[in-house]
Write a structure and sequence with these properties.
Layout: H1 5-9, E1 14-18, H2 21-34, E2 38-42, E3 59-65, H3 73-81, E4 83-95, H4 99-107, H5 123-130, E5 137-150, H6 151-162, H7 170-182, E6 188-203
Parallel strand pairs: 1-2, 3-4
Antiparallel strand pairs: 4-6, 5-6
């Protein structure tokens, strides 16, 4: 769940799953500070035993927003099984990314650039729902993302991101810093990207044509 504090602010009792201890600690702190009811559980959709957790059919609304956690048929079915009324799913439809990561992958890490880490996008989940008769409400969004930041901040953000899935050597870290420094002649790193996202909401109890 991307922003569990939002429904909690509206008075809902919220349960949030995440594999990141740090993110859950921040969520718990926000809940304490704002007096919100949020049950934060360190767990993933692909390992969750929803029966042991008491999640099956337990929630009015289940949200999977821009997450790699719902990544295949099994996890998608598991997410839906936790809802007794509605589900919400959002993901990328298409996006152009800053070329820096692609160049770093190839020229510094010696790897081919990877796709985004936010699951299967929107098309396949939509078709998986549509085929058996679900008719989700779908909306799309487009935005141009222009960002400026100091080259040191940009370099450290890239190092943190790339270091999530591999151990970066000191030499690789220094080369990444050099890349951003050289790409920022006035000390400011600038990036542009076109981002297309989609969301869909559907009832788990109603199908058309079945």
């Amino acid at each position: 769940m991307r922003s569990p504090s939002s429904p909690a602010c509206a008075g809902a009792d919220v349960t949030s799953l995440d594999i990141s201890t740090g993110m859950l600690d921040r969520l718990r702190e926000t809940a304490r500070n704002e007096g919100l009811t949020i049950n934060a559980i360190e767990c993933s959709w692909w390992t969750a035993d929803i029966d042991r957790l008491g999640f099956r059919g337990a929630f009015d609304l289940v949200i999977a927003s821009m997450t790699p956690g719902v990544r295949d048929v099994e996890t998608f079915d598991r997410m839906m099984a936790c809802s007794k009324r509605f589900c919400y799913y959002s993901n990328f439809v298409g996006r152009g990314s800053d070329t820096a990561h692609q160049e770093i992958f190839r020229n510094i890490l010696g790897e081919e650039p990877r796709g985004h880490a936010h699951g299967p996008g929107l098309l396949y989940p939509f078709m998986y729902l549509y085929a058996p008769g679900y008719r989700p409400i779908v909306k799309f969004n487009h935005m141009s993302r222009n960002r400026e930041q100091g080259w040191v901040e940009a370099a450290e953000a890239a190092i943190d991101f790339l270091g999530n899935e591999r151990v970066l050597s000191d030499d690789a870290r220094e080369k990444i810093r050099e890349y951003y420094r050289d790409a920022s002649p006035d000390g400011t790193y600038r990036s542009e990207a076109e981002v297309y996202t989609g969301m869909m909401v559907w009832s788990v109890t109603n199908r058309d044509g079945t």
